[in-house]
Amino acid sequence: MFSIPGLKVVSLTDAAARRIREIMAQSARDNPDAPALGLRVGVKKGGCAGMEYTFEVAHATGKGDEVVTEKDATVIVDAKAVLFLLGTELDFKTDRFSSTFVFNNPNQVSACGCGESVEIKPRSETALAAQ
């Protein structure tokens, strides 16, 4: 588990925690024989800005994954994404046209115009030691 005193990999707003609990409840109804552990979040290469955030219902954890349980909701941060997401607040917003998770990520340096991809710089060990 990755740990720096006073710094969480991911924190959840009330709205994000509520939505994750809803997703887990729906997953349990749809797949009663395959209980989900939480919502897996990560990053992958893609889009015009270079990276995209990913989501999936997780049924297992992998080596090096970070498990964050907050407000009765569990997020599993993919091991390859920890340094890209360190210090991120996950929120959930609904407006007239969409409902979506929003990453308030201090490591994000830019985003494409359509909002589908982002540029993220991983935290360096030097920056982590300074905190």
UniProtKB/TrEMBL annotation:
InterPro entries, per this entry? ATAP, ATAP_core_dom, Fe-S_cluster_asmbl/transfer, HesB-like_dom_sf
Task: Using the record's annotation, list all stretches that form the Core domain.
Answer: 10-116
The domain of life is Bacteria
Family as reported in the entry's similarity comment:
Belongs to the HesB/IscA family.
Can you say what this protein is called? HesB/IscA family protein
The organism encoding this protein is Bosea vestrisii
Q: What is the lineage of its organism?
A: Bacteria, Pseudomonadati, Pseudomonadota, Alphaproteobacteria, Hyphomicrobiales
